[in-house]
């Protein structure tokens, strides 16, 4: 469903992404790993048409994201706090998204019910603006927003960062359930090799903007990554 074709991104004299070809099929949980500066966030931003490519294109179901609008109904994403309206309370924010997506009150409630465990009683009814929540709780609001409106694919940059251990496990369960129940395609980046190998059936390792490993074998991916990152 997501196709990357002859993609290059150059800043000044530095090529920060160079990906000749990458296809992410529907329903795949696709993990993106790599050291700091490898190009993970830049790739997310290019897929979302937040940053233009220097060469090449990203297509969603055949549509070039920099030329069309249809893909926006298919993709949900949470990259960072800039994607939120932090001056709203979580309730106000979800009510705003409800209007944008044309959902009923019952549909919104059904969606939020899926997040009861993850929210852990600290988000809805907290009487706080999003900006005043803890980093982990802000992330939970962003993830719940990214999944609203039944997107076919969800892009999450470092979804486990800043979440406490129980929340990390709850999020993993929630993502697996979305994948099983609705065939949601997940594209996630992570520095946590345990989580990414548990969740993803495919992991691409980026180094200085290039794909240096495309791992599909679940029995071997953890040790291959441990060897690369020297944490074995
Ligand atoms: N606007 C910009 N101008 C110049 N260089 C940039 C810009 N945005 C990103 N870069 C460079 O692109 C490279 C890739 O950065 P990116 O943030 O995509 O890496 P990352 O893999 O997400 O890193 P991290 O794991 O630290 O989040 C880095 O060298 C970064 O300095």
From TrEMBL:
<dbReference type="GO" id="GO:0016887">
    <property type="term" value="F:ATP hydrolysis activity"/>
</dbReference>
<dbReference type="InterPro" id="IPR027417">
    <property type="entry name" value="P-loop_NTPase"/>
</dbReference>
<dbReference type="InterPro" id="IPR017871">
    <property type="entry name" value="ABC_transporter-like_CS"/>
</dbReference>
<keyword id="KW-0547">Nucleotide-binding</keyword>
<dbReference type="GO" id="GO:0005524">
    <property type="term" value="F:ATP binding"/>
</dbReference>
<dbReference type="Pfam" id="PF00005">
    <property type="entry name" value="ABC_tran"/>
</dbReference>
<keyword id="KW-0813">Transport</keyword>
<protein>
    <submittedName>
        <fullName>ABC-2 type transport system ATP-binding protein</fullName>
    </submittedName>
</protein>
<dbReference type="InterPro" id="IPR051782">
    <property type="entry name" value="ABC_Transporter_VariousFunc"/>
</dbReference>
<dbReference type="InterPro" id="IPR003439">
    <property type="entry name" value="ABC_transporter-like_ATP-bd"/>
</dbReference>
<feature type="domain" description="ABC transporter">
    <location>
        <begin position="2"/>
        <end position="231"/>
    </location>
</feature>
<keyword id="KW-0067">ATP-binding</keyword>
<dbReference type="InterPro" id="IPR003593">
    <property type="entry name" value="AAA+_ATPase"/>
</dbReference>
């Amino acid at each position: 469903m997501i196709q990357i074709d002859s993609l290059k991104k150059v800043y000044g004299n530095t090529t920060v992404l160079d990906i000749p070809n990458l296809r992410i099929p529907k329903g795949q949980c696709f993990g993106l790993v790599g050291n700091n500066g490898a190009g993970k966030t830049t790739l997310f931003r290019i897929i979302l048409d937040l940053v233009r490519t220097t060469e090449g294109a990203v297509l969603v179901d055949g549509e070039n994201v920099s030329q069309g609008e249809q893909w926006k109904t298919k993709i949900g994403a949470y990259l960072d706090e800039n994607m939120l309206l932090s001056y709203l309370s979580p309730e106000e924010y979800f009510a705003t998204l409800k209007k944008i997506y044309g959902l009923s009150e019952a549909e919104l409630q059904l969606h939020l019910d899926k997040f009861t465990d993850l929210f852990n009683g600290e988000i809805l009814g907290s009487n706080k603006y999003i900006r005043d929540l803890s980093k982990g709780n802000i992330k939970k609001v962003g993830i719940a927003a990214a999944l609203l409106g039944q997107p076919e694919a969800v892009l999450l940059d470092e979804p486990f960062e800043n979440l406490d251990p129980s929340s990390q496990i709850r999020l993993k369960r929630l993502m697996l359930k979305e994948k099983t129940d609705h065939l949601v395609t997940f594209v996630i980046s992570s520095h946590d090799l345990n989580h990414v190998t548990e969740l993803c059936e495919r992991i691409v390792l980026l180094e200085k903007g290039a794909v240096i490993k495309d791992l599909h074998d679940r029995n071997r991916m953890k040790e291959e990554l441990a060897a690369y990152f020297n944490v074995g």
